[in-house]
Amino acid sequence: xxxxxxxxxxxxxxxxxxxxxxxxxxxxxxxxxxxxxxxxxxxxxxxxxxxxxxxxxxxxxxxxxxxxxxxxxxxxxxxxxxxxxxxxxxxxxxxxxxxxxxxxxxxxxxxxxxxxxxxxxxxxxxxxxxxxxxxxxxxxxxxxxxxxxxxxxxxxxxxxxxxxxxxxxxxxxxxxxxxxxxxxxxxxxxxxxxxxxx
Length: 198
What we know:
Pfam families: ThsA_Macro
Protein name: DUF6430 domain-containing protein
Largest sheet: 7 strands, mixed
Order of helices and strands: EEHHEEEHEHHE
Number of strands: 7
Low-confidence stretches: 84-90
Helix content: 25-40%
InterPro entries: ThsA_Macro
Number of domains: 1
Domain Thoeris protein ThsA Macro: 7-160
Organism: Candidatus Haliotispira prima
Radius of gyration: 16 Å
């Protein structure tokens, strides 16, 4: 069943609940208002967990190569992250739509950074719509790997599109329509999927 919910996506998380958290392409853990905003779900998760704990959990996944591509396959041990000249830091940068898991959370990469340090969803060689399709592809793989329980999904990408003043024909309404269409097609008999908005 697909339901729309309002409120705090972090409220009353039990063992049978998985929460999708949009993160940047480096799985960063610094909530400084630049790299990660404290009001973003990424920032709230880090502040709730503590940055050291979040960092250790994510680093363990990276070291163990426990990162999945947008088709749900573990990335190979020799996987090449984005070239160093495209990196804004020493962190590895993974493609949009890749994901990993820590505890009850699915960390789904939905943004890159430009030279000004702003998060954006547009790939340099693609449109916002094509990039959003890559995000939904990763979301689909992540949800398909959950066998039962409730999956909480925020409206992914809409705040970034707004902040960046995207000029394309692809807008918030298109994103919400495509997200709902994607989730409706994923529902299994033993799953509940909830779309959360603040």
